[in-house]
Design goal:
The complex is a heterotrimer of chains A (678), B (296) and C (319).
Chain A (H helix, E strand, L loop, with lengths): L3 E13 L5 E13 L3 E5 L6 H7 L9 E9 L2 E2 L5 H7 L4 E4 L3 H4 L6 H12 L7 H11 L5 H5 L8 H14 L4 E5 L7 H18 L2 E6 L2 H7 L2 E6 L2 E7 H6 L4 H8 L38 H5 L5 E2 L5 E2 L28 E10 L6 H5 L10 E9 L3 E5 L6 H9 L6 E6 L3 E2 L9 H6 E4 L3 H4 L6 H13 L3 H14 L16 H13 L5 E5 L7 H18 L2 E6 L2 H7 L2 E6 L2 E7 H6 L4 H9 L38 H5 L4 E3 L5 E3 L4 H13 L1
Parallel strand pairs in A: 3-8, 3-9, 6-7, 7-8, 15-20, 15-21, 18-19, 19-20
Antiparallel strand pairs in A: 1-2, 1-4, 4-5, 9-10, 10-12, 11-12, 13-14, 13-16, 16-17, 21-22, 22-24, 23-24
Chain B lengths: L12 H14 L1 H23 L31 H7 L2 H28 L1 H15 L3 H12 L3 H11 L2 H15 L2 H9 L3 H38 L10 H9 L7 H28 L10
Helix pairs in contact in B: 1-2, 1-12, 2-12, 3-12, 4-7, 4-8, 4-10, 5-8, 6-7, 8-10, 9-10, 10-11, 10-12, 11-12
Chain C lengths: L1 H28 L4 H6 L5 H11 L5 H13 L13 H36 L4 H15 L2 H15 L23 H27 L2 H8 L4 H13 L1 H16 L2 H7 L4 H10 L3 H29 L1 H10 L1
Helix pairs in contact in C: 1-14, 5-6, 5-8, 5-11, 6-8, 7-8, 7-12, 8-10, 8-11, 9-10, 11-14, 12-13, 13-14, 14-15
The chains are: A alpha/beta (678), B mainly alpha (296), C mainly alpha (319).
Chain lengths: 678, 296, 319
């Protein structure tokens, strides 16, 4: 057996609750990481995975304290080191890549200064070589123009660049082990794929051990040999990546995998109902018992041990042998497709939107510069009963378009028409009540879209009073009916948003939108603030409501698999311009537009046997080019000067599939096929 | 209301108020602060009934005597009982500021929320005007009006209410800006609610915490202004007892009768400190950091 | 950056212009003018008319405003109503004295406040923090004339260490104000230290709880290096604005202190001229104080922008 670098022995961490009781966040965790090994820690929010990663450095957040156990890093007990001793280890032999590097880099210090500080504290490089070494490190994490980066401030870099800087800083101390706390969360898919490849390569080159904490099984599948699944502060399953992701033997792990939407199939993921117990709320039994399909009386009274299996896996379940009965993926409901009757529910004609407004001083000085519109040239029709998915990376303008349709952001040009050919007024204030009622919007984060001071009854009351003039008993009855429809009961009426879970909050937001009895519902990243098991339940609910009401959806998301699960048709956006529109099966099956190809290639599946293809450079563009194709700067299929100067034409395929490129659909397919053959 | 309580409802406004009050009282600063404020309010109400002497009764035989059995805090330069005058000395100040504070917070708060919601050019121009007003020292603004129109409460109340409402505009506007950026306001706009409904239902409940803390602070600053004016001789006119005025009078005899200033000094300070301690505890209970805000 | 500077200057100028209109129309709305004040009882008939003609008061308000504002821009603040002296000269000495008072208080108070603010912030909830924070509440809330009175009682009457009143005339050179100036400086320092301390304290606490300080700890950066290199440059940025407000307050809002100590600064001149209804002088002082207010706040904003790299690029990009 190889020697372990990090040895976490029976560690328990907790805090003192309001009642004075000690509430555990981590319970009896054992974990050892061998030299050169990369191990993934998976769990949903609140599972304690980040606390565990920080505890591995001998660090606990304010308010937390060590209840039991120890952490040994290369023979040293981290919780009994003195401060100077810890200062030597942290950032030296043991380094951390934080979740959000943008906030973890000191804003007032240049990148160079921060890197040199790391070298000064943790390397034997002589001071005269610090600048050269720092530049070299930035090169190693594949940052373009390292010299220029040295003199930048953190906020001047994109999210992906900040993450690379954090990696360079960690490498400065030549660590034996690297702890990564959700290092790619919040990054675009293409950026994430690039960072993960970089991490794989660097870990392999240097023989570093890695502990990779994430909620994203796709990322884990890409970089880890072994996986630990955490639930409610416990380890519930541990095994090789293939064991855990292909045939997990714990009911929770199976449920989690089944709840992940996949690119490959057009099924809704299977929801995992319920929520994990709060710290201290697990009782005497198994912490998963309330959500488990295999639960029996024994599970409620007795806490299962982490049992070793002949295959080498460790599982915390009495009935793991029966777990195989539980579905893994692929048998969720097929999203219903209400036969589109050819009547357009929403039509965008030549829509353009601009955030730029000339300032007072500009007017005063008579300056007016040509400004490239944020969103331009959008022509899309959504049929009644159809779900249109809008996909694109951050900054692609997908949410901006929704805001314009909702009337929150008047367009700079073009028309928005709803069913019956009625044009929508640009400003919500000038729209007639009927238009307002027919279009409803659901926002990304229910914490932000529900007024924290209103009870559920007050939240639902607003559309019901405004559109239907309901009051008294009728209002109450209708509210209860709507709550039932989103699978919450009337007893929720008196609650405040802060007393609900994330999934429940989003259901309330959905209920509020459907209270208006809308024709068209705009969904703006409605699942991205939620855990994956909760996300599945919300997708399922949206599908069910559509089935009952015949609603039309415009569904915006950065997550291609989520869009795939729910959408009939998909529109791909880059820099506020359309690249490709078509039936989702077609768009996902034969990605025609180069950008769609890049985007789909970067998606990570929770399957260790797949790998992303990185077709284009990872560059973040701040504004679209003034002329030509919007994707010209990153396109792997660029054919020449024409891409830089002329806006590409639409090429139409079958079933309303259309792409916008200087190459035709067939030409692109041919190029892609040749490359695949090579 | 329409809701049929299926679970005991703990989410009414009253329940929240009681919760905040309990939190304030659980803090040492809140408990001491509230006790001081209430003691002063009660004294102000009952003092005319319990004072031992007539506040304007002069006694040329007993001028500037020290504390003794008959005059607990001694007498002033006109032979009036200092204890009597200290007990009565806060009534005018509490009356004027007690009326002017809610008016100031209400009008300033409303204007601030309104412009915070409307935004754009009008808002920018409005802020310039507010800035312009704030750039003039309060005492200059107050004095010019007082010298012209007199010092009766019919002048002081509207003047204080007006001038102390201006900075509230800025605070309310900043708080509103934070709220307006949130999606529930966008959601209300998208539903088609009118401006007034949005202000009343979405903005006000979320800005109210800030305004409450602001109100407590304005109150203490108004008291400060009121007593400063009296001290300078522009406030309450003699022989009405007022702490500021009493301190000013007693200062002249401080070298040989220093006890004269102590009574009004302790009375005035304890009231203002009480209000500030309460405001501090309230801000902490509501999760608003007061120290971050610069005094204007 | 330059455009930003221009924009801020422009907005500052707009504010000063608005102030000047407020001052002028405020004074205009008051009953009486400088002639009725100067002539007092004899302000009637021919005499009043002659006076008004001599001072140009019979012209329209717009014309007089333009005239006043134009000469003010050139540094001529007009003449006082009683005695017809040049206001620029009258105000000059007083402004000098006010600046002296402000400078002494700032020199003493700002470093002290920042030091204590950092100490209380780093040792949050420890005895030293609790003691200093409580003292700060007292220093901040007790009315200035009360603390001044108590300090005079203590240092001047009981201990006899310092003079309790300023007797030096307004036109005397700065050095002659010592040691009389010490007690007023002490009072002002107390009040401003309390304000700045509280702000610095909460800013330090916020920054020390932030992500990048936690990260610096996990990068193995020694504690004091974290404090001085990573935390304080960020935590002290908001102090710039508070110091600016303090300066504005020191130059315009310390009327009470000047009266208590008989200090010949702008504040006392302001109060005297209001009592005398010397409206041109009131107008002039108001304009000066307001301009200082706008000026220091503008400088503070620009300084913050220069010191904060994030704001710097934000504005460059937006412009």
């Amino acid at each position: 057996m190889t020697q372990s670098v990090i040895d976490i022995r029976n560690i328990s961490v907790g805090f003192t609750g309001k009642s004075g009781a000690t509430l555990p966040v981590l319970r009896n965790i054992d974990l050892s990481v061998a030299e050169g090994e990369s191990i993934g820690i998976v769990g949903e929010s609140g599972s304690g995975k980040s606390t565990l990663a920080l505890a591995a450095m001998g660090y606990l957040k304010r308010g937390l304290r060590l209840l039991d156990g120890s952490v040994v890093f290369r023979g040293q007990d981290m919780f009994s080191r003195t401060r100077p001793e810890l200062e030597k280890i942290r950032g030296g032999e043991l380094a951390l890549i934080p979740q959000n590097s943008g906030q973890s880099l000191t804003p007032t210090l240049r990148i160079g200064a921060q890197l040199i500080e790391a070298l000064r504290l943790h390397s034997s490089v002589p001071a005269s070589d610090h600048v050269a070494k720092a530049t070299e490190l930035l090169g190693q994490v594949r940052l373009p123009d390292p010299k220029a980066i040295m003199s930048r401030f953190p906020h001047e870099l994109s999210g992906g660049q900040q993450q690379r800087v954090a990696l360079a800083m960690a490498l400065a101390g030549e660590p034996h082990a690297l702890l990564l706390d959700e290092p790619t969360t919040g990054l675009d898919v293409t950026t994430q794929a690039h960072i993960l490849e970089l991490l794989r390569d660097i870990a392999r080159e240097r023989g570093m051990a890695m502990v990779y904490v994430s909620h994203d099984l796709g990322a884990i599948a890409r970089v880890c040999n072994r996986v630990v699944v955490m639930y409610a502060g416990e380890v519930i399953l541990k095994g090789t990546t293939r064991q855990v992701l292909k045939a997990p033997v714990h009911p929770y792990a199976r449920g989690l995998l089944a709840s992940i939407p996949r690119l490959a199939d057009h099924h809704l993921p299977v929801a995992l109902d319920g929520r994990p117990p709060a710290p201290g709320g697990a009782g005497n039994g198994c912490s998963f018992v309330d959500r488990c399909a295999l639960a029996q009386d024994r599970c409620r009274s007795e806490r299962p041990d982490l049992a070793g299996l002949p295959s080498g896996e460790l599982v915390r379940c009495f009935f793991y042998e029966q777990a195989e009965q539980l579905a893994l993926a692929g048998n969720g409901a097929v999203p219903i497709q209400i036969a589109a009757d050819g009547v357009p529910a929403l039509q965008l004609d030549d829509l353009s939107i601009s955030y730029h407004q000339p300032g007072l001083l500009d007017k005063f000085l008579g300056r007016s510069e040509a400004h490239v519109a944020t969103v331009d040239d959008i022509d899309v029709t959504v049929q009644r009963g159809e779900t249109l998915g809008l996909v694109g990376e951050s900054g692609s303008g997908k949410s901006t378009i929704l805001k314009s349709v909702a009337g929150l952001l008047p367009p700079a040009g073009g028309n928005i028409t709803v069913a019956g050919g009625e044009a929508l007024a640009p400003n919500v204030e000038s729209r007639p009540p009927d238009h307002l009622r027919r279009i409803q919007m659901i926002f990304q984060n229910p914490d932000d879209s529900l007024n924290p001071r209103h009870t559920v009854a007050e939240l639902l009351e607003q559309p019901l009073r405004l559109y239907f003039g309901l009051a008294g008993q009728a209002l109450h009855d209708r509210s209860v009916e709507i709550l039932d429809r989103v699978r919450l009961g009337g007893h929720y009426l008196d609650r405040l948003p802060s007393q609900l879970s994330g999934g429940e909050k989003q259901r309330i937001a959905i209920a509020r939108a459907f209270a208006a009895d809308p024709d068209l519902v705009l969904c703006d990243e409605v699942t991205s603030a939620l855990d994956v098991s909760v996300q599945a339940a919300v997708l399922d609910l949206l599908n069910e409501l559509k089935e009952k009401q015949g609603t039309t959806y415009v569904f915006v998301s950065h997550d291609l698999a989520v869009v795939k699960a729910l959408s009939d048709r998909v529109a791909v956006l880059y820099q506020g311009r359309l690249c490709e529109v078509g039936p989702s099966d077609q768009v996902y099956a034969t990605p025609s537009h180069p950008y769609t190809e890049v985007l789909l290639g970067a998606v990570l599946e929770p399957d260790p046997d797949t790998a992303p293809t990185l077709a284009a450079d990872d560059v973040v563009e701040l504004s679209p080019p003034a002329q030509g194709c919007p994707f010209q700067r990153r396109c792997p299929r660029k054919i020449g000067a024409i891409c830089d100067t002329e806006i590409p034409p639409w090429h139409e395929g079958s079933d309303g599939h259309a792409i916008r490129c200087h190459l035709g659909i067939d030409e692109l397919a041919a190029v892609q096929a040749t490359q695949a053959a090579e | 209301m329409t809701s049929i309580p299926s679970v005991p409802n703990q989410n009414t406004r009253l329940a929240r108020f009681l919760l905040v009050l309990r939190d304030v009282m659980a803090r040492p600063s809140g408990a001491i602060g509230l006790a001081l404020v209430f003691a002063h309010l009660i004294l102000a109400l009952i003092s005319p009934m319990i004072v031992p002497y007539d506040y304007k009764a002069m006694n040329s035989a007993m001028m500037l005597t020290g504390p003794e059995a008959t005059h607990w805090l001694g007498t002033d330069h006109l032979g009036r009982d200092v204890f009597t005058r200290v007990l009565l000395g806060g009534r005018e100040a509490l009356l004027v500021t007690g009326i002017a504070t809610p008016i100031a917070v209400t009008w300033g708060g409303f204007v601030g929320i309104f412009f915070g919601l409307v935004g754009g050019r009008i808002d920018e121009v409005m802020m310039r005007v507010v800035d312009a007003f704030l750039s003039l020292p309060w005492i200059l603004k107050m004095l010019v009006l007082i010298v012209t129109f007199g010092t009766g409460i019919e002048v002081l109340i509207p003047t204080l209410a007006f001038f102390y409402g201006v900075p509230v505009i800025r605070i309310a506007r900043a708080a509103t800006h934070d709220v307006v950026a949130r999606d529930f306001v966008s959601a209300a706009r998208a539903r088609g609610h009118g401006r007034m409904t949005i202000i009343r239902r979405e903005l006000l409940p979320n800005v109210l915490d800030t305004l409450m803390v602001e109100g407590a602070m304005r109150w203490s600053w108004m008291l400060l202004a009121f007593s400063s004016l009296s001290f300078l001789g522009f406030g309450v006119s003699p022989p009405t007892p007022d702490w500021g005025l009493m301190i000013a009078d007693a200062r002249g005899f401080m070298s040989f009768a220093p006890w004269g200033v102590l009574g009004p000094v302790i009375a005035l300070s304890s009231l203002i400190i009480g209000i500030n301690l309460t405001a501090d505890a309230l801000a902490k209970a509501l999760g608003i950091d007061r120290a971050q805000k610069a005094p204007v | 950056m330059l455009r930003m500077l221009l924009r801020r200057l422009f907005l500052g100028a707009v504010t000063v212009a608005i102030v000047s209109v407020i001052i002028f129309s405020g004074v205009e709305l008051l009953p009486g003018d400088s002639c009725t004040a100067f002539l007092e009882r004899e302000a009637k008939g021919k005499l009043l008319e002659n006076c008004r003609e001599a001072q140009g008061l019979n012209r329209g308000p717009v014309e007089r405003y333009v005239d006043w504002a134009a000469s003010a821009v050139q540094g001529d603040l007009g003449v006082s109503a009683n005695g017809q002296k040049s206001i620029t000269e009258l105000v000059g000495n007083r402004l000098k004295n006010s600046l002296l008072l402000a400078a002494c208080s700032l020199a003493l108070g700002v470093p002290l406040a920042i030091f204590l603010g950092v100490v209380t912030g780093l040792w949050r909830d420890r005895p030293i923090d609790l003691t200093l924070s409580t003292l700060a509440i007292f220093a901040m809330t007790i009315p200035e004339f009360v603390s001044a009175t108590l300090l005079i009682l203590l240092f001047s009457i009981w201990l006899g260490w310092l003079p309790g009143i300023v007797l030096t005339p307004a036109h005397a050179p700065a050095s002659e104000f010592f040691p009389e100036i010490l007690l007023p400086v002490l009072v002002l320092t107390m009040v401003m230290t309390a304000h700045i301390l509280r702000m610095v304290r909460s800013s330090v606490i916020e920054v020390m709880a932030g992500d990048y300080v936690q990260m610096a700890t996990l990068k193995g950066v020694p504690y004091w290096r974290i404090v001085f290199r990573h935390a304080l440059p960020n935590a002290l940025l908001p102090a710039i604005n508070v110091v600016a407000l303090t300066i504005a307050w020191l130059l315009g809002g310390v009327v009470v202190i000047e009266v208590v100590f008989n200090y010949p600064g702008l504040g006392r001149m302001m109060i005297d001229s209001i009592s005398d209804r010397d409206l041109p002088v009131v107008q002039a002082i108001a304009l000066i104080v307001a301009t200082v207010y706008v000026g220091v706040n503008l400088s503070a904003d620009l300084l913050t922008m220069i010191a904060n790299p994030r704001l710097r690029t934000l504005h460059m990009r937006r412009q």
